[in-house]
Specification:
It contains 16 helices and 18 strands. The strands form five sheets. It has a six-stranded parallel sheet. By secondary structure, it is an alpha/beta fold. The chain folds into two domains: about 170 residues, Cobalamin-binding domain (Rossmann fold, 3-Layer(aba) Sandwich); about 240 residues, Alpha-Beta Barrel (TIM Barrel). Helix 8 runs parallel beside helix 9, helix 9 runs parallel beside helix 10 and helix 13 runs parallel beside helix 15. Bound molecules: cobalamin and iron/sulfur cluster (SF4). Iron/sulfur cluster (SF4) binds next to loops.
Length: about 450
Amino acid sequence: MKALLVNPYIYDVSAYDYWLKPVGLLYIATALEKSGVEVKLLDFLDRHLPGNNVHDGPYGTGKFSSIVVKSLMNEYGIPRYLKRYGAPEEILNTLNFSPDVVLITSMMTYWYGGVFETIKMIKKNFNVPVILGGNYPTLLPEHAKLSGADVIVEGDGIPKIYDILEAVTGTKVEHTVGENWFEEITPDNSLYPKIESAVIHTTFGCPYRCTYCVAWKKGFKVRPVNSVLKEIQELKKRGVKDIAFYDDALLVKRERFKKILKGLPNDIRYHLPNGIHAALLDEEIAKLLKEKNFHTIRLGYETGDAALQKKTGGKVDNTSFQRAVELLKSVGFDSKDVGAYMIVGLQDQSFESALEDVKFLARMGVKPVINEYTLIPGSLDWQVALNQGLVDENVDPFMLNNSLISYWWKGSMGIKKIDILKNVVRRFVTGKISLDELLKFKV
Ligand code: B12
Ligand code: SF4
């Protein structure tokens, strides 16, 4: 059997390749290959594909090519352009593969437009069943039925994939991987003919339960240390220069992570872009991060408002955050490497407290990194917003996009205030205003 695995286009007002890789799909590839299925990857977001690299950024990041789909002014009154990010469709003509089945992944629920378009294109080129999995059908299964896919898969796709393939193709597929897939297999990065940066997960899911997040819905799985180190050695052999750890809860198994750190080759650059838990950072880890060539470190700060910290899940408090920053500075990291994520637009978050957070981070010598809030279907916040009538169950998921929601959602401080915060942060991190000027900034 031949399976084409597709990472679809992104539909958004902005997108950047921050070590973006369809990790779930690469795991599925391995699970199928073990059963003798011939697999080919079509990653529309691979910047090594012809026509998809606009600009290389630092450490293996960069800009995708994009085309404007439409202006959002007439329909939504929002002064932004919706764009399609990824390689031009002509890439399909170069595939040289006739699949019996196509498997498509999905990441953000609000990127569903890219999923729909990709499925349409696939259907035009191949008359075979299309299976859709990933975050979008998991969080919005009813909506995903409109995608044009023949089968919608919710949740963990790996243990179910063999039965699904048998059902849609009529061919028997040996069940080689089950519930323990995360301990047993590694993602098949060799499907990329050229790969310079890669993504690693040493854990899967999260044991915390923050109200604005859904990562905890995946449970929590841990990979053996040896399997992680072996994967990194293989990536190194293939010429990978940058590796991003994208765990949701990397430091929860702290002693285990230390073993991983000690075994890392020194001649690769490592990155922690997915906000680590400040409260769990200790001195030994901070030293190892410096010793082992870590460059991008992001701490999850989210908000400095103690009441909000507690209400949203209590993963961090100001004292432990400050301690973590001091540890990182004491081993030689500075604001070039260390940033802290702040969520802006949470319900009950005031503009004044968010501005204080920006100043607090800057004063500590940490780069403030603003994440505009997105209300995620299926999160605890989502339920509260539904109960309070702040959102309609049938809202177009696209309108929940983190760059668009603040234009209309009554639950947040609103787009004008968010823009003021974004602007002042931009001016500070690009050196247009000094720390002193930032600290004096008032509205
Ligand atoms: C890495 C990551 C990113 C990275 C890069 C993504 C990448 N592709 O590498 C980056 C930095 C870009 C990112 C950004 C953001 N992210 Co993010 N991110 C993730 C994260 C942590 C990991 C995804 C992942 O690789 N998981 C590991 C793999 C193994 O799991 P998986 O892909 O889900 O695959 C499994 C199943 O889904 C299924 N499956 C997957 N594909 C397929 C296909 C088929 C055919 C089948 C059968 C099954 C199947 O089987 C797999 C095994 O179980 C998830 C959280 C999470 N734990 O999933 C959030 C997550 C996807 N992100 C989220 C959010 C909110 C964001 C931001 C908006 C945050 C913000 N406010 O700025 C931004 C988006 C900015 C933008 N507009 O671009 C939300 C998504 C919410 C939503 N509405 O969909 C998540 C779920 C986290 C959360 N907060 O709850 N993110
Ligand atoms: S925000 Fe972070 S700590 Fe909280 S549930 Fe999500 S992944 Fe876990």
